Amino acid sequence: MEEAGSVALEELVEKEKNRFFSGVDYIVISDNLWISQRKPAITYGTRGNSYFTVEVKCRDQDFHSGTFGGILHEPMADLVALLGSLLDSSGHILVPGIYDEVAPLTEEEINTYKAIHLDLEEYRNSSRVEKFLFDTKEEILMHLWRYPSLSIHGIEGAFDEPGAKTVIPGQVIGKFSIRLVPHMNVSVVEKQVTRHLEDVFSKRNSSNKMVVSMTLGLHPWIANINDTQYLAAKRAIRTVFGTEPDMIRDGSTIPIAKMFQEIVHKSVVLIPLGAVDDGEHSQNEKINRWNYIEGTKLFAAFFLEMAQLH
Fold it and tell me: C-alpha dihedral over 269, 34, 290, 271, to 10 degrees?
């Protein structure tokens, strides 16, 4: 359900909290990756997500650029200007006020980033990226996990096929999302984004119509790393892998974690098994045989640790 927007999932969890979940003591999710290829990790936080569409419309039909080019406010030109106003070349989000509620960085938190094993060269090579926006391990991890990011995903209604079609789209829809972090509020972000785009659009003096919609609003999640499950998971990792785990957050959104924590009121832990180069959601997604086998051992050790607590 998560890949389809988790429709009706919250309603189902609410309905079952005193039935199915009454017999549940703890909740374990294994739905993300380590930050390295060989060192295990435990995840204690995820970013939320606000997904937006911005529609610019002149009319229902497309235009021919030879017949109408030069006398119209073209919807595509308006939309490109709107999308281009959202962030700068360094990845900084330009929506006014968007960073106001981001949790302040503490000295203790900085130290957790320093302790994480991340080989930047290996990470860059496994990602097949020539250069990241930031140069240090700490900056990269903080901008992945504890700062918001904005990504532009696509334009509906535009000509995107091979060839040279001289069309002016009569209506286009831009799609973008903002990954949210503690303590950002979904409804506040919606207002900030809408206000910003309306302001940018008004300055273009366009005769087109613009509509901004937030189609998805998911809150960030964070857990207490001193929780019983986290301590048990650490001991299990030491048993199986002979090392301390990296304590990481995840830049993605796993909405069920926060739903379980807030609705069911049971302890939630994320124990990933996959390596950083598994390529989730991408072509040729994989899991290493070694991760699969050692992951099986890890869960056996974890269940034993939890059983011994009782």
Answer: 0
